[in-house]
Amino acid sequence: xxxxxxxxxxxxxxxxxxxxxxxxxxxxxxxxxxxxxxxxxxxxxxxxxxxxxxxxxxxxxxxxxxxxxxxxxxxxxxxxxxxxxxxxxxxxxxxxxxxxxxxxxxxxxxxxxxxxxxxxxxxxxxxxxxxxxxxxxxxxxxxxxxxxxxxxxxxxxxxxxxxxxxxxxxxxxxxxxxxxxxxxxxxxxxxxxxxxxxxxxxxxxxxxxxxxxxxxxxxxxxxxxxxxxxxxxxxxxxxxxxxxxxxxxxxxxxxxxxxxxxxxxxxxxxxxxxxxxxxxxxxxxxxxxxxxxxxxxxxxxxxxxxxxxxxxxxxxxxxxxxxxxxxxxxxxxxxxxxxxxxxxxxxxxxxxxxxxxxxxxxxxxxxxxxxxxxxxxxxxxxxxxxxxxxxxxxxxxxxxxxxxxxxxxxxxxxxxxxxxxxxxxxxxxxxxxxxxxxxxxxxxxxxxxxxxxxxxxxxxxxxxxxxxxxxxxxxxxxxxxxxxxxxxxxxxxxxxxxxxxxxxxxxxxxxxxxxxxxxxxxxxxxxxxxxxxxxxxxxxxxxxxxxxxxxxxxxxxxx
Length: 559
What we know:
The protein is mainly alpha-helical. It has 28 helices and no strands. It has helices spanning 3-21, 28-31, 35-44, 49-66, 69-82, 85-102, 105-121, 125-139, 145-162, 165-179, 184-200, 204-220, 227-240, 244-260, 264-280, 284-301, 310-321, 325-345, 347-350, 359-373, 379-424, 441-456, 467-473, 478-488, 493-511, 520-527, 532-543, 547-557. The termini are far apart.
């Protein structure tokens, strides 16, 4: 929207608000029109707020005169869709206010859902999730399956953004089953989101299969809106398969449609993976304008994702090879801004992402470059400062290394003591805890018995084991199984499975010397982890030391 259209839209909104206060007269031609007619006109004029405004007001005025709660909410929602970002939350709150007056759970829930979607569009993910959860509290009391699954889909999207990929996959699968016969676009959206999650957990084969299914279903359903997004998703997947030329072709072929949709987020992602593919082909100069496009979108829209932050790391590398200090300094500043935003919006992912440039290193690098600008006038001071800084850093790193080694050794000794103690007297499951009041005692007992068999048979070593799969195997449901594990094992499902895998590996490394020569990748495969990164994170979380250090120490102990 250019500045002229934005100004005109603000004028229309101002006139609309004034009209409500002054009982603006509806044109005679619209007085007797029904809601379907007005809704069709609003839909036909979507994007043209000036022409649609008279129908928007007529719709809301008619609903208010009839005291029709549902249509009043629909009226505010129609206005919300045509409003600038700065006003969307105001109309979402109006929907909630009217819905609460109606005391209808479905209307209250759908209004909170709309507010969550507005927050999601603003990339305020925590606020979005808060509203989705409130929406779910109301909608779950109804029999409106469409709303129930719409909430599930939006919560799954947030979970995938926050890095809870396994939970998101489970929800997306449920949405696919429902929406397949109850909504073409949400069905295709769910397929697309599922494929993205498969890519994130490293299941590239499932990702490709899901993308292919999405493309074939788009043809069957005669809906091409999601076609470029499936092509883009497969382009990203091909990048991770190291098929860089194929990745570039797919991403470039999808880019025009994405730009036409004004989807700046997907446009940024496409440019990033085109640039990364060219970078892998050592075509650094060709990659540069695509990285710069990612940066432009970040500047203009404030959009960045954890994976997109690498844009600035690679730009810093590029400008270093060109001795371009100005380019390095700019890229460092942008990377610091990106990290500030990510730390606020993506707390879960940021804690896991590997950062080549952490904040302290970036600030040091920035000061170093500033010093180089003054090098010609301050040679002596510059070299003295560099020597001092290098000495301090060397001292700090040496101290930190020694301190970490002492801490790791202490944790290793504690771990070995605990293992030896457990071997002598295996701890009992906390069955003496208070009973779970919300679940039948026999059901709880059956689940606990199944868990004991599951642990004894080491079924936890299977790959891609999810709460839903295990619940089916136990002939139970995910909710009950999750509650029992949390109550009697004091852990979430994913923590429970990961800890069992790590306990298995620790015992294996202690008792079988062959496995001490295995790589992290081989150990991850042995225990059924889907990636080396997930294995390393789980090992550190469980033992508080790295797998490499544990193996190193256990070799020294000559156990």
